[in-house]
Amino acid sequence: MATYYSNDFRAGLKIMLDGEPYAVEASEFVKPGKGQAFARVKLRRLLTGTRVEKTFKSTDSAEGADVVDMNLTYLYNDGEFWHFMNNETFEQLSADAKAIGDSDKWLLDQAECIVTLWNGQPIAVTHRTSLNWKSLKTDPGLKGDTAGTGGKASETGLPVPWLKCHCSYRLAK
């Protein structure tokens, strides 16, 4: 893989640190009046999703991570694994709860997802830039009950309090 110096770090770049893949979320290059230039970098650890902030000298470098983002279709959940299919080759991949994270709230059958693979294994699942879903029938909220907990359940079970029943909605990232 390619080698990237700290002044090449940009949001979206995936690098290897300590043998694990990280994604650069933000990078600020600092040139102090006295001393060596450095970069303050906000990273997301792709295996766990935790965020880390590191400082790199201008001479520091990191290898590019060998991760692949694939567009896959969500098929079903068997209770332990979420199953996805590649529409071109019809191969199926299974992802565990660690790779899914909070994305399970947004997964609908036949939804297009972006699955990040590292060494052939799914490590992260994100939904596309927009989703289409419907709200299901629930009791209407009471007039003036702005502090109440009532809400309409969506197809995924996620309660959304301000929507009307039986309507289709488009959610954008």
UniProtKB/TrEMBL annotation:
<dbReference type="InterPro" id="IPR020599">
    <property type="entry name" value="Transl_elong_fac_P/YeiP"/>
</dbReference>
<keyword id="KW-0648">Protein biosynthesis</keyword>
<dbReference type="GO" id="GO:0003746">
    <property type="term" value="F:translation elongation factor activity"/>
</dbReference>
<feature type="domain" description="Translation elongation factor P/YeiP central">
    <location>
        <begin position="69"/>
        <end position="123"/>
    </location>
</feature>
<dbReference type="Pfam" id="PF01132">
    <property type="entry name" value="EFP"/>
</dbReference>
<dbReference type="InterPro" id="IPR012340">
    <property type="entry name" value="NA-bd_OB-fold"/>
</dbReference>
<dbReference type="InterPro" id="IPR014722">
    <property type="entry name" value="Rib_uL2_dom2"/>
</dbReference>
<protein>
    <submittedName>
        <fullName>Elongation factor P</fullName>
    </submittedName>
</protein>
<dbReference type="InterPro" id="IPR001059">
    <property type="entry name" value="Transl_elong_P/YeiP_cen"/>
</dbReference>
<dbReference type="InterPro" id="IPR008991">
    <property type="entry name" value="Translation_prot_SH3-like_sf"/>
</dbReference>
<dbReference type="GO" id="GO:0005829">
    <property type="term" value="C:cytosol"/>
</dbReference>
<comment type="similarity">
    <text>Belongs to the elongation factor P family.</text>
</comment>
<dbReference type="InterPro" id="IPR013185">
    <property type="entry name" value="Transl_elong_KOW-like"/>
</dbReference>
<keyword id="KW-0379">Hydroxylation</keyword>
<dbReference type="Pfam" id="PF08207">
    <property type="entry name" value="EFP_N"/>
</dbReference>
<keyword id="KW-0251">Elongation factor</keyword>
